[in-house]
Every structure is written in structure tokens, then in C-alpha cells.
Design goal:
mainly beta; five-stranded mixed β-sheet; globular
């Protein structure tokens, strides 16, 4: 190559370098005024790995942003740490947080996070079409119910022994809950049934239960069914099983107003009342000796609209995982978003503000617990579908 060619090449490189600097400056100016572009933010957010521990986190979220799925940890200052983690099913992955760690899953793995790192447990019988149905805490770890066209599976994660055991459940829509550290299946023909990783025969479980969401308190298991439209009100069937006596009863729940829901979520028992979320409210009924064959539900917490005088709108819904219950309070996410319709490209919802709110189940009092800062996932088309809180942090609220 001659000297002229070399000089031309150097000038070309210099020109490219100059344009590169201009481009970087442009991105920097954009980031300062408009935030980091979603594509660049996605590249910055790492995939889940073994060194992703809880550290000082107090809240965990599973969410979608800009068509990707993330696991997000939030500390008490509202600072976030995020990793990319694909869903199991369509926005079905749940979170459970106990003294054994934070439990969640991906398409083909179970994960348990502790203070310093993460442990993964590969699933042998999961399929690409599997979706998560329930995730509960057990005495030695966690139990997870998943299902697909090939049937349902139960996975038991033993945290202390570091092992995972899987069992086929067959074609069933049985519910799963936890009673005093024991995993309990709820089905039509068996009623309530304690199951472990050593339970060999899980066949014969009824394919239909009439139960959409289920919880346990002491010796009683509570299952809520679908909503039914009546002439002047909506009703829902509450099924109650007594694990000690085997007794089973049904109670009709009547709603004082239209609920516009077909299923409820996040049921829990606190101080003698059963609470659950349906549409834009938290409802409750007493579950003591005074409970008859029919009862009218009481609306205890408004989960719709804006939060007090703060311009953030509460994200609520009827699906499991949208709220986290702990110590007589429920926790969820409230956001301030703006619809953006650019001249070029697709329109989207831009996240301007994101908070964690808490509500007292008994009094209905609501407040912002955390303001998220330094968000490290794309602020575009946010959809939160699971939340869990550090139980120690919740006990101090």
C-alpha cells in the first residue's frame, strides 16, 4: 500500500472516530434529558447468574419491560438491581420469600436466592409450554405446581439438602397451598391432601376443583371459586376444609356491588377474617364460628385509582402474585406512566415514576413504602405480575 493510501485510510479512520464521538455525545445528551434508550438499557441488564444474591434487597418483582422479562430487587433506599429472566408461561412466574430465601423460576429451572448468591435447580420434566400455577413455602424450602398440555407437575426444592424432586400429578387443576410448612393439594375427589417429595402416587387427582385461589390457616383450608352473576348481585362460593376432622362445607359470598371479575387472588387469613383481592378492591369475610351458609363480603381496601395525593396509579388485578400479603398488610406497585406516540416508530407507555405501596387490611390505610430510584431496566411498557417482600422488613413496617 502506498503512502497516499495510508494517509487516506488514516483520514477515514479519523473521520469514523469523530462520528463515533458525536454519536456517543448524542446518546449521552439523550440519556440526560430522556433517560437511557430501552435498547441500550436492555444490553446493560445482565442475564441471571450465580452471583446475583439478595444482598440488601427488601422487595422483589417479576415484570416485563419493552417486551423482555426481568427479576428486579429493590433495597430500602429504592435502588434497583435487575437481571433478565424469561417467564415460565405467559407472565405466570411467581415469587415467594421466606427465611429460606427468595424462590422463583424460569422456563426450565428453579432458583433460590440467598444473601450472597443464587442456586439453580434444573427441571427434568418441564416442557416449553409449561406455565406456573402456584408456588408456596414449605418447612425445608418450596413447592411449585406447573402445568401444560402434557399434564401437571409438582417440584419440591429442599434448600438445606440442595436437591429438587419432581412428581407428575396428571391432568388436574388442583390448587396448592401451604399449611404450617406442609404442601397441601386441594382437589375435588381427595379434598385436601398433604404431599411431599416422597409422595409416590399423585394420580387420581380430580381434573376439576371449582377452586381458583386457595390459602390455609391452622387446620383449615379456604378455597375461592369463580364469580357467578345473579339477578341483583354477584356471588362466589367459598369452600372450607377442616384438615383435622375431614369436614367440608360451602359458603355463598354475596357482593354488595358489581365487581367485574371472574376470579380472585392473594387470599390470606388475618385476625379471624379471610381477605382476598378482586378487581380493584381487597374484600373480607369473618371465618369464625359466626360464619353461616351465606355472608356478604366487606370491601376493606380500595386498590384502584390514585394513591392519596400522590400522582401514581395503583396496579391491581385479580391474578395471583399481583399483591404480596405479610403481617396484615398487602404490598403492590403504583406507577405514573405517560403514553408516547412518536412521529416514527411504535407508540408506548413511558414510565415516569414507580413506587411500592402498602395497605393495612383491617383499617384500609394506604401509603407509599418505597420510591424506586436509579431504575436499571427499560422504562417502557411496564407490566408487573409478581411481587414479594422480605418478611423481616415487612414485620418492621
Amino acid at each position: 500500500m502506498g503512502q497516499g493510501q495510508k494517509a487516506t485510510t488514516k483520514r477515514g479512520v479519523s473521520a469514523l472516530g469523530a462520528w463515533g464521538i458525536v454519536a456517543l455525545v448524542g446518546v449521552g445528551v439523550w440519556a440526560v434529558f430522556f433517560g437511557i434508550p430501552a435498547g441500550i438499557q436492555t444490553l446493560k441488564t445482565p442475564l441471571i447468574s450465580e452471583d446475583f444474591g439478595l444482598e440488601d434487597a427488601v422487595v422483589a418483582l417479576r415484570l416485563d419491560a419493552d417486551d423482555r422479562s426481568y427479576l428486579v430487587l429493590v433495597n430500602d433506599a429504592g435502588e434497583t438491581r435487575s437481571v433478565q429472566l424469561d417467564e415460565r408461561g405467559f407472565e405466570d412466574s411467581r415469587l415467594v420469600w421466606t427465611e429460606n430465601g427468595l424462590s422463583t423460576g424460569g422456563p426450565f429451572d428453579e432458583y433460590v436466592l440467598d444473601a450472597d448468591d443464587l442456586r439453580s435447580f434444573p427441571l427434568d420434566i418441564a416442557s416449553e409450554s409449561s406455565s406456573e400455577r402456584a408456588r408456596v413455602a414449605t418447612g425445608d424450602g418450596f413447592a411449585v405446581l406447573t402445568g401444560s398440555a402434557e399434564g401437571a407437575q409438582l417440584a419440591f426444592v429442599d434448600v438445606e439438602d440442595g436437591k429438587l424432586t419432581e412428581r407428575n400429578v396428571g391432568y388436574t387443576s388442583a390448587g396448592l397451598t401451604s399449611c404450617d410448612g406442609e404442601a397441601v393439594l386441594v382437589s375435588g375427589d381427595h379434598g385436601v391432601r398433604t404431599v411431599t417429595g416422597e409422595t409416590e402416587d399423585l394420580s387420581g387427582t380430580s381434573p376439576f376443583t371449582g377452586v381458583g385461589s386457595v390459602t390455609c390457616a391452622g387446620d383449615r383450608v379456604y378455597g375461592l371459586g369463580e364469580f357467578v352473576d345473579a339477578e341483583d348481585h354477584e356471588t362466589q362460593t367459598l369452600q372450607i376444609w377442616d384438615r383435622t376432622t375431614g369436614e367440608h362445607r360451602e359458603v355463598e359470598i354475596r357482593y354488595p356491588r358489581s365487581v367485574l371479575a371472574w376470579m380472585s387472588g392473594t387470599p390470606f387469613v388475618w385476625e379471624g377474617r379471610l381477605y382476598w383481592a378482586a378487581w380493584t378492591a381487597l374484600w373480607s369475610v369473618p371465618v369464625g364460628p359466626e360464619l353461616g351458609d351465606s355472608v356478604t363480603a366487606t370491601e376493606t381496601v380500595d386498590l384502584g385509582g390514585f394513591l392519596d395525593d400522590v400522582d401514581v396509579e395503583i396496579i391491581s388485578g385479580t391474578g395471583e402474585g399481583v399483591l404480596a400479603a405479610a403481617g396484615g398488610r398487602v404490598y403492590g406497585v403504583a406507577t405514573d406512566e405517560r403514553f408516547i406516540n412518536p412521529r416514527r416508530g411504535a407508540s408506548y407507555d413511558r414510565l415516569d415514576r414507580m413506587t411500592i405501596f402498602g395497605a393495612d387490611a383491617a383499617s384500609g390505610e394506604r401509603r407509599i413504602e418505597l420510591e424506586l430510584r436509579g431504575i436499571d431496566f427499560p422504562k417502557r411498557d411496564i407490566h408487573v405480575h409478581a411481587i414479594a417482600v422480605n418478611p423481616q422488613w415487612a414485620a418492621e413496617r
